Amino acid sequence: MQAPLYYRAAEMFGDSSFLCPAFQFAAGLHRAGVPAYLYLDRILDPVEVATGYIVPHTWDTQAVWGPSFAVNYAALPGAISYEPSQSNAAIVPVVQAFWTSFARSSGNPNIFRASGTPAWNKSVGGSFLNIETNNTRMEQISSSLLEKCAYWADLAAETRQ
């Protein structure tokens, strides 16, 4: 585990470098009439969480390609939560259906989505798909993140973001 300020700095870096620019970019695409679909990967692997990994970056790779095809480069040794009967096994067909629907339908993740899953709406006004095992849902950007993004937008010229 890291010191508390490490996690605070990591959150600030993530907000300023990834989350806020993604929402700003999606808003620009929407204004230009181009559909954008945002998602936030909140799939947590118990082994990787226990080691102190706080950002599940690329963890969804195992769900997209299947655990037997992505585990060697996307997960720590022993991180097998996407395998059948493990804690994240249920998210694999959900993620695969969204991604293959997007590819098969020329950009619509909903046409071939898995039965019983929520529609993945276009990102309008800060909406995004929260991808989480057994709890995937559409959400709106929180007011606190909106405030943070406004702050980072004001500093964009200075931070070159």
TrEMBL record:
Gene3D superfamilies: alpha/beta hydrolase (3.40.50.1820). SUPFAM superfamilies: alpha/beta-Hydrolases. Residues 7-142 form the Carboxylesterase type B domain. InterPro entries: AB_hydrolase_fold, CarbesteraseB. Pfam families: COesterase (PF00135). This is Carboxylesterase type B domain-containing protein.
